[in-house]
Amino acid sequence: MTTTTVTSAPATHIDLHALFRPVLTALRFTGHFVVALVGVIFLGSASEH
User: ∠ at Cα 33 (32, 36), nearest 5°?
Assistant: First the structure.
């Protein structure tokens, strides 16, 4: 009984990491994209004035 619960616990942790890893990479990518977009907008508005 105890061995099944012990083996199922790390499996859930591995699943959580597997689920969060692409989410974190997506957030990191969107973060860089937003920073680049804001930089382009800021540079564009600065060059106009």
Answer: 85
Cβ within 8 Å of residue 10, ≥6 positions away: none
pTM: 0.48
The first and second tokens of residue 36, run together, are 């680049």
Q: What is d(CA 46, CA 34) in angstroms, rounded to the nearest whole number?
A: 18
Question: Hunting for tokens 């942790």 — which residue is that?
Answer: 13
Tens of pLDDT, residues 5-15 = 555 555 556 67
For 1-49, where are the alpha helices, taking DSSP H only?
2-48
